[in-house]
Every structure is written in structure tokens, then in C-alpha cells.
Amino acid sequence: MASGNSEGRRSLTATAVKVIIAGGFGVGKTTLVGSVSEVPPLRTEEVITEASEGVDDLSGVEKKKTTTVALDFGRITINPELILYLFGTPGQNRFWFMWDELARGALGAVVMADTRRLDSCFPAVDFFERRGLPFVVAVNCFDEAYRYGTEEVREALDLDPYVPILLCDARERDSTKQILITLMEHVMADADLAAAGGRR
Asked: Is residue 181 exposed (0-12), middle (13-18) or buried (19+ Cβ within 10 Å)?
């Protein structure tokens, strides 16, 4: 009985944090949320139809058969005091109007990048930079893609030195969990700096 009460107290005092998973079309956002979520993830995927021809840019991901049309949702407990709620954005340009709503109340974001199509993550980087929302860049290392170093990616994306960049495999839970831990460390460092009156 005592252990049950203890667990109940921990869950009541846990901090819930909203995190956005963003990036271009087909970069691995749905895969990341699914690999790390401790509950069955909510997905809003639909089959890509002829209606998307000439509207969605499928270059580099021609074999992709489905697309997220609203959001992905998952949850992970980092430790007894911290629970992350993950919201994955749709990647196509025609769904960007939803990003403002999804980002409301978020404490941080993961921008996923594909080195075969780095330009696809520029809109996400710009979105979070304009809002002053702390973010990390997760380079999803696809099997057939050339492996660039993190500093090469930083230069290509023109990122500030303090923005963390990680190489990852969105299919692997340990890899994606490390991204989220790094993001939380970055968010806390950013908050500490702001409390001290500093600016990045």
C-alpha cells in the first residue's frame, strides 16, 4: 500500500511538458514519435493520392506512400518528475497554418533534418527562431544518405553555436530519447540564462 501511495504522489508532482517535433515532409517525425512513445501513438496518416501531385514536393521521398495530415502524438516519461507530451507537425507546406496552434504552450522543439534534403528543414528553423522557442536539430541518418558531421550541418543551416545538433536514428528508442533529454537540458540552460538577465 505504501509503495502505491508513493507512486501516486510522484505522478501528482510530475511536470508535464509539451514538445514539438517538426521538419520537412518525410524526414521521420512520425517514426520518431512512434519509436519513443510509451503509449500507442496517435497518428493522422493518410495515403498519398493523385490530389497531391503538383502540390506536395515528393523529391527525395518518392517511395513514401502516406503522410501526416494533422499531427502525431505520443508521451514519454523521462523520469518520475518529468513527462513529455510529443506533438509531431505535418511536413507539407499546405499544412503550415496548423503550426501556430500546435506550438502554443510548447517549451521546446526538435527540428528533424535529412541531409539529402537539408533545405526542407529551413522553414522549421525559421519558425522557432522567430518565436524564440528553444530547439535542437536532430539529423536523421537514413541508411542511403551521406553522413555529414554536426558542424557541417550547422554551417549549412547557419545555426548559432549554442543550438545543439545530434545525429540520430529515428527508429531507435535510445537514440530518440537522447534527443529529448538534450532538448530539456537546452531548455533549462536557456531559462537559467534568461533568469540571470543574459541573452543569447
From this structure: middle
